[in-house]
Amino acid sequence: MRIARFSIDGNVAFGAVEGEGPDGLVLDIIKGIPFAEFELSGTKVPLDKVRLLPPTLPSKVVAVGRNYAEHAKEMGNEVPEHPVTFFKPSTSVSGPGDPIPYPSFTEELSYEAELAVVIGRMCREVPRERAKDVILGYTCANDVTARDAQRREQQWARAKGFDGACPLGPWIETDLDPADLTLQCTVNGEQRQLGRTSDMLRSVEDLVVHVTEAMTLLPGDVILTGTPAGVGPLSVGDEVAVHIEGIGTLTNKVIKRG
């Protein structure tokens, strides 16, 4: 099931996306929220009549760095012995079509296409064999980064946590095996990144175990699983798109921060 969060006539709701292709998609409005038992209402609205929102509003986004060997290499880093984790705040989250504001404190904004894991229920110290039980589904993410700030500051909070630095969407796909998916990033229609999730150094299950050893994850929280090689700069006016096989495409445009 593809679950979208959307706004229509000033109201916010979740809906199941039905249909195929860019035209003719409809949303069957969900009674309740997808993080608990829910029913489909049977009331349907065309997708092109709503505004898609971030598919989840996480209390926290736990991101994993250097989870693809070639990306670690291109950044001049060794493959880490243990997962490198950091936070992106809830205020950094945006949705499909939302602008990415270019921060005033950077001159080197960069894209990072990533598979995002959306947690379905509260969990802590999850054993590997139960990792999939706590996952609601998967969505596309862009771990937008102020690369020069990342280099000069010992902590990555500003470099990766500014407003608009975590686009998510377009929806959550609940019926998906994340083990070997094509992941692609384009800028203004030109391919910049192309990888497969099978190249991740640590699997989705491994990351759920690692993160929940330290902290409780709440329904709607997100784990970003790292980016493949090919990261590069963004400029004001650029349109950046993240496409993941079996999920869809997340598109955002870079604007000058007002």
Strand content: 35-45%
CATH class of the largest domain: Alpha Beta
CATH topology label of the largest domain: Fumarylacetoacetate hydrolase, domain 2
Q: Give me the count of strands.
A: 20
The class by helix and strand makeup works out as: mainly beta
The CATH level-2 architecture of the largest domain is identified as: Alpha-Beta Complex
Indicate the low-confidence ranges by residue numbers.
Answer: none
Characterization of the model:
InterPro entries: Fumarylacetoacetase-like_C, Fumarylacetoacetase_C_sf, Rv2993c-like_N. This protein has two domains: 2-52, Roll (SH3 type barrels); 61-256, Fumarylacetoacetase-like, C-terminal domain (Fumarylacetoacetate hydrolase, domain 2, Alpha-Beta Complex), CATH 3.90.850. Helix content is 10%, strand content 41%. It is built from four helices and 20 strands. The strands form three sheets. Strands 1, 2, 3, 4, 5, 6, 7, 8, 11, 12, 14 and 17 form a twelve-stranded mixed β-sheet that branches. Strands 9-20-19-15-16 form a five-stranded mixed β-sheet, with no helix packed on it. A hairpin with a 3-residue loop joins β19 and β20. The radius of gyration is 17 Å and the shape is globular. The model has no long low-confidence stretch (mean pLDDT 96).
